[in-house]
Structure prediction request, 358 residues.
Amino acid sequence: MPRSTVARIDLEALRRNYQTARGRAGGAQVMAVVKADGYGHGIGPVVSALDGLAPKFAVACLEEARAIRETGLGHPVVLLQGVPAGNDIEECARNGFEPVFHSFQQLEWLERSDARPAFWLKVNSGMNRLGIHPDELAGAMSRLHTMNADQGLLGFVTHFACADDPDSTMTAQQTSVFEQATSAFPGLMKSVANSAAHFLPDQPMFDWSRPGIMLYGGSPMVGRTGPELGLEPVMSLEAPLINTRMVPAGESVGYGASWVADRDTRMGMVAIGYGDGYPRHAGTNTPAAINGQRVRLIGRVSMDMLAVDLTGAPDAKEGDTVELWGSTVGVDEVAACAGTISYELLTGITGRVPRRYR
Ligand SMILES: Cc1ncc(COP(=O)(O)O)c(C=O)c1O
Prediction:
């Protein structure tokens, strides 16, 4: 019998979250960000489920774009990091991949190439990771024009550093820098919004938004959970209870003996650990659920197992299914307990855990 530790993926919930993004996109078209294997949900099933809804997909790299083509879908695919080498440009043109060029090096590759893919230009509006500085944009544009390489230019992209924090003034600042920098080039499209921007009142959304995490039900906003924002969990991470026992008061459980029972405690071992991508930093009191009842982790997460205190689920027995995150326990809650964000948890589930699709 196969191990019953699984990630159940609700593709209908994914589709509904996409519609929520569209409803919040203020009339912009919505490209679905499906990088990192569809945020850990499986890029093939994710793009197939969004076929007919999302007109465009966005990924980080060429390998991910190829994975979309392997499903047979012909949607345009935006390459958010452009290309790693000049000779990749021809593949973009041939396959409908739209690189986002972010540096003069990449523009030089385009100029030298005979291929002319549709492409975007990334503007550095303040994030300072990638992008052409606003002061250099006019130079980049005239260079593209002179070299007759601007034919495929679709528009401009920028990315926000602090959109997850509605109190930050940085998103408005970046929007203003971006608008100013691109105002000299009317008629081209603009794309700025990650998931968080869909939840900021008065945020201009321009022509295309680029939500990722919200499609998968994770919260893009600091201190809020996905369900609080009207998002539905897409992944339910489940593992079986493989042992139960009484731990007498004063005895410990697991590596490091870090948790010691302060009273006789019925506990259960769950067949999932950091070898499956469950975060080792999730400490005692991190929630899980059995038959809809909340329980808490106790002690350290091992590679293949973790322990839960079964006091909250007195009827729990060996063979029962434990939800590590899903509809009862939100992935954002677990992320907060592990000192991280839902993005890292969802993308971190390893290949040992089969994805089962609904
Ligand atoms: C350039 C770019 N756009 C959009 C996204 C989607 O962001 P989010 O998952 O926060 O919606 C990302 C994700 O990191 C990104 O790098």
User: Anything to note?
Assistant: Residues 33, 80, 159, 194-196, 210-213, 220 surround pyridoxal-5'-phosphate (CB under 6 Å).
